[in-house]
Design goal:
heterodimer, A: alpha/beta, Rossmann fold, 2 domains, seven-stranded mixed β-sheet, five-stranded parallel β-sheet, 12 helices, B: mainly alpha, two-stranded antiparallel ribbon, 11 helices, 74% helix
């Protein structure tokens, strides 16, 4: 009797340790920047994930199993994020969400790759999908995909020849900067001021001054939210009157809130924006605001999309299998009519890179306004 | 010319705020041999007192600022001394340093947890006008930051040098045992120093936040810069901390424009190393004795 009990216990333990496949819950882990310098972006992403997971569970979970969500705080530390990805996998996660900061993702995605666990990241550094990792998937496209559209806009619509770049000296910023410079130089534009800034930099007076005196006819701003707001405020103070162009960050709700009137006139090429005239996006924004008490941004949308992508792809596979999930997402296209959790139609290629239509957004009277919808590339 | 003027004004405006935080380092060291590595967070927190007063309790800006000032005196002055410094100081400087590092982390994470992880806009205290001065764009905010910071530091100098209480604080800093024999209430004088530090932190916070925004992590950079400024200027002189702050503000901007924006954060550290090698007591510091 005693021996039988021990055997039963060992078998049960083995089943539990085998992970989500044998349990009545599906284990998913979110590793994000809940503290440290990246806490703003990481927290918003995590809220997007939480909203999606709660909705998924309310509507029957994944394949009839409830999602058991585990949250890990990377502290915006790449090495910590790497250890936590391993911990999440050891604790049975069959798919991962996060991290947001590219400097963390380039480090921790190797652990997910070694363990064969698919990872859905918010990071946008071009290098992430260029390393041949078959388990990494973006929730928004990499910086390199948006740059041709921004370069073409500057050359063809603004008619400028000399441009300046203000960029964050991080993995995220460097990736975007390198892509932008390469593309605009191919287009025949000249980069006359190349101004990096540090993460958390507060004083942008020297940065703006350099750009102002460079003869640039437009500036491309590739900074994180607070830094972008500080840059815009300083640019207004110093009377930098050239067009200010950026990506999703520059015209985001948060930057508008922080920079106030200084954000007016800023233009951004946004893949995800709550200004999009899409009922699903508006519905998501309303639910998010109702629950968390603030407006979502592109990071919240990415977290929401990431969690729902895991659900849809797993249900296509028909079982909780990490390898089959990764195989399924490669080359997958999700129609938002049929799969509303992705908000806007989107596809993944063989590298995990995303394609979806995009928007040119301008800040007018403190509001994001979509001025143009651009096709997917 | 206009470019240099712009750099100087922007650098001095930022430097004046660094100086306020750096003076706090100097004061606490002089009064109680406390190196407060939570000083950056001390400058971060009062802005959130103001924001909480306005958003949660619906106070007007002026009332929220007054409340924040009082809270800063209580929390960053009196409570810091009573709950952290007094119990830890008998165990030596190192445990106290570690305790202040822990306190800084606690303050940072608490603001993130109980208020927000995101940067917050902070209402401007002064008109947002910009004036053109020989081609340089100078905001009223910059000028007012300079004036208020200088006024605070000069008032402090006058208080310490010209009043009976100030001289008693000086005596306490130089030799607490002798001061006590001479009838100075040493404990009270040390408490005054902590209260002054709390007030300076509040002023710095309220001046800097409209430009730098209020964010839980703001203290990380600010604390380090203020610490460097205090060492460069002279850890045992208030005027040294003032000079150090202004110098770092201007050098940071000069380096970003004329040397390299990528390495601008390294320049103050290089300055620190040079000062330690050439003049360990700091530019205006004195090798012997202590004065507040």
């Amino acid at each position: 009797m005693m021996k039988r009990n021990v055997l039963a216990g060992v078998s049960l333990t083995a089943m539990l340790m085998a992970g989500g496949a044998y349990a009545d819950t599906v284990k998913i882990a979110n590793i994000s920047e809940l503290s440290g310098a990246g806490a703003a972006a990481g927290t918003v992403w995590a809220h997007g994930v939480d909203l999606a997971v709660d909705e998924i569970n309310e509507h029957g979970g994944i394949l009839g199993m409830q999602v058991e969500m585990r949250e890990y705080d990377s502290q915006t530390d790449p090495l910590q994020s790497r250890a936590l990805v391993q911990k999440a996998i050891d604790e049975g996660a069959f798919a991962l969400l996060g991290t947001v900061y590219s400097s963390s993702t380039v480090v921790n995605m190797l652990v997910a790759q070694q363990n064969g666990i698919p990872q859905f990241t918010a990071s946008e550094a071009p290098s992430i999908t260029q390393k041949g990792n078959p388990y990494i998937f973006r929730t928004n496209w990499g910086a390199q995909k948006g740059m041709p559209k921004i370069g073409a806009y500057m050359r063809d619509q603004l008619g400028v020849e000399n441009v300046a770049v203000a960029w964050a000296n991080t993995e995220f910023g460097k990736g975007g900067h390198d892509s932008f410079v390469e593309i605009v130089e191919e287009m025949g534009l000249k980069v006359v001021a190349d101004v990096p800034s540090e993460q958390g930099q507060a004083d942008f007076s020297a940065d703006v001054l350099r750009i102002k005196n460079s003869g640039a006819e437009a500036v491309f701003i590739y900074l994180t939210q607070e830094e972008a707001a500080r840059f815009l405020m300083e640019a207004t103070k110093q009377g930098l009157e050239i067009p200010k162009i950026g990506d999703s960050v520059l015209t985001s709700e948060k930057v508008i809130e922080l920079a106030g009137p200084a954000a007016n006139g800023a233009k951004g090429h946004a893949a995800l924006t709550i200004a999009a005239d899409e009922p699903r996006v508006q519905e998501f924004a309303a639910k998010f605001t109702d629950r968390f008490g603030y407006s979502p941004d592109y990071n919240a949308m990415k977290g929401y999309i990431g969690a729902y992508t895991i659900k849809y792809a797993t249900e296509m596979v028909g079982e909780v299998d990490s390898q089959k999930l990764a195989d399924t997402v490669h080359g997958l296209c999700l129609d938002a009519e049929e799969y509303p959790g992705v908000l806007i139609d989107m596809c993944w290629d063989d590298t995990g890179e995303v394609s979806r239509e995009s928007y040119m957004v301008e800040v007018v009277n403190g509001q994001e306004q979509v001025s143009e919808v651009l096709p997917a590339n | 010319m206009a470019e240099l003027l712009q750099i100087l004004v922007s650098g001095l405006s930022a430097g004046a705020i660094y100086a306020l935080a750096a003076v706090g380092f100097t004061l606490l060291w002089q009064a109680s041999q406390t190196i407060n590595f939570a000083q950056g967070e001390f400058v971060m927190l009062p802005a959130f007192f103001v924001l909480a007063g306005m958003t949660i309790f619906g106070l007007p800006l002026w009332a929220a600022i007054l409340t924040a000032l009082v809270l800063s005196l209580v929390v960053l002055g009196a409570m810091f001394k009573k709950l952290i410094v007094e119990p830890m100081l008998p165990h030596g400087t190192l445990p106290l340093v570690i305790a202040t590092i822990a306190l800084g982390i606690l303050m940072k994470e608490s603001v993130k947890e109980f208020y927000s992880a995101q940067g917050q806009p902070f209402p401007p205290l002064f008109p947002q006008h910009v004036i053109n001065f020989f081609g340089a764009s100078i905001s009223i905010q910059d000028i007012c930051n300079l004036v208020v910071a200088f006024a605070a530091i000069i008032s402090l100098q006058l208080f310490l040098g010209r009043t009976r209480t100030g001289r008693a604080m000086q005596a306490t800093a130089q030799d607490p045992r002798v001061a006590e024999i001479l009838g100075v209430d040493v404990k009270k004088m040390v408490m005054y120093t902590f209260l002054i530090n709390g007030a300076l932190a509040a002023i710095a916070s309220i001046l800097i936040s409209p430009v730098y925004l209020a964010k839980f992590s703001n203290g990380e950079t600010l604390g380090m810069i203020a610490f460097i400024a205090a060492i460069v200027g002279g850890f045992n002189q208030i005027k040294g901390a003032l000079l150090g702050g202004l110098l770092i503000g201007v050098i940071d901007n000069l380096a970003a424009v004329y040397v390299s924006a990528e390495y601008r954060t390294a320049i103050p550290l290089i300055l620190l190393i040079v000062i330690i090698m050439v003049r360990p007591q700091g530019i205006l510091g004195t090798p012997e004795g202590r004065t507040v």
